[in-house]
Input
Amino acid sequence: MKIQKAADGFDTLFSEQYNQTYHSIHGVLQESQHVFLDGAGVEARLKNKIETSVLEIGFGTGFNFFLTASKAIENEASLNFTSIENNFLGYNLFSSLNHIRLPNIKILYNKFLNWRKNQPQNPQPGICKIDFTNNSKPYLIQLNLLIGNAVEVSLPAHKYDAVYLDAFSPDDNPELWTVSFLRKLFQAMKPGAMLSTYSAKGNVRRAMTEAGFEVSKRPGSLGKREMLVGKKV
Ligand SMILES: C[S@@+](CC[C@H](N)C(=O)[O-])C[C@H]1O[C@@H](n2cnc3c(N)ncnc32)[C@H](O)[C@@H]1O
Output
């Protein structure tokens, strides 16, 4: 795993196993904001101080979580963020990345690093709950990390307001783009919830439709023409 700088100065990682980066090299912040926070309607909810429950597939470097938490703190809105990861990065990598440049998250990021430092290098499958709530503030920030294979993890029904599908590409990480996996995400979402993904591939769109989503194409983030969002109607 190698750290690479994207065009906006934020760090991403290159995975030798998947032969791809964790984020767009055209801009980590731009991609995360556009595809996930805007695409899944999370930005709008937080701006309106609506308590929001997010499910992410692929915690990776945590950037999507830290950006979402930054917005929740800015807007004083409660966030319950669940992320599934089967290859949880070690303390040295987390502490080398420059995600701490994001506004509002210095205390939260340091708490996360401190927590990671005290965990085993390769944690056992299971759930880790980290509460970032500051008792002097009127909102909650909670992270639930589900360590394990997303295909095998069981998810509660009708729980999430938004899903960030941030697996590696459908060609290289195919188990996270199947109809049966998308159905599992669909049943975990509340009615009206949105799933967003950077992919615009025809077979992903068809699989999302077959899983029950109302699918639409949106302009993609820098370097990509289109992306997909799916609504649970
Ligand atoms: C594109 S990266 C995610 C980037 C991340 N959201 C971020 O902000 O840094 C995809 C992630 O999915 C994880 N992953 C791949 N297959 C998985 C599986 N079957 N179960 C759980 N996680 C998986 C990879 O280890 C990797 O961390």
